[in-house]
Give the backbone structure.
Amino acid sequence: MDFTTPTSFAKDPGPTPGLQDPFGRYVTYLRVSVTDRCDFRCVYCMSENMSFLPKKDLLTLEELDRLCSAFVTKGVKKLRITGGEPLVRKNIMSLFKSLSRHRETGRLEELTLTTNGSQLAKYAGDLKAAGVERINVSIDTLDPVKFKAITRWGDLATVLDGVKAAQRAGLSIKINAVALKGVNEDEIEDLIRFSHGEGHDLTLIETMPLGDIEGDRTDQYLPLSVVRARLLDRWTLEDIPFRTGGPARYVRIKETGGRLGFITPMTHNFCESCNRVRVTCTGTLYMCLGQEDAADLRAPLRESPDNGLLFEAIDAAIARKPKGHDFVIDRRKQRPAVARHMSVTGG
């Protein structure tokens, strides 16, 4: 067990001015990867034979709590725990329980989670008890055979059981699906009917050029502009101002009454309103998912028991947050736009 009580946390000096980048955007949303490990091997995310980080390189759960708390002090209002698959991290619920104190004080507006759903049946009730109100679950297909092919190691029935458990626990659920050309593009309407029929939002995501995956991403890439045009042949899509704090842009489907989100880093980036940064499980802060520039937060975290050096490192990093990313999928180049895998950065 990494920790049991918050008694050893660095002293919190109280609220400080918000984190503002060079373009006037305030960073209020932090995504934190707690592990690079996953019990799936999704074909668009990682290779089947992954080499994972040694345990000594990972932040302890106590260090993750201290780091997240520093960002809350700096004005972060929304915290999303990611991976890899975050629920495979040993004793992960102790981190959720500890972070829930910021929800109780009102300084953190939302503590949430992105998961593949494999462990939800076990942890849904505990998540709700720790102040998690909403989760994202990745489901790219409702075909069990295809699900196995996409995830390599996953079982659709287990995931759907986990979603049901989350519903029973009172968690609000959004289904995430990566749109994959020739794989699930003929299932988008089925995913809409399933999600909206169960009372869940659905968000479609374009595949992103992150990390080598033993394949050519140009064969996977499906522009969501094409998907939207196809949907308009059968459905009535009404643009709505709904936002969750992330990059998705939503429509309401008149026929189902449900919400459908589009995350389009390739066909239309969302950088002008970016309020997000990501921290990896090793304490590396990425100011932009699509850029390699990063800041080491592990060193100042471990160098001093108080947060002075950590705050300085965070401020310096946010001061060089770029205006946007440069994602492109190019058949002429076989290497990804960004070398690191999504499982390392945090999904």
Notes: Confidence is low (pLDDT under 50) at residues 4-8, 334-338.
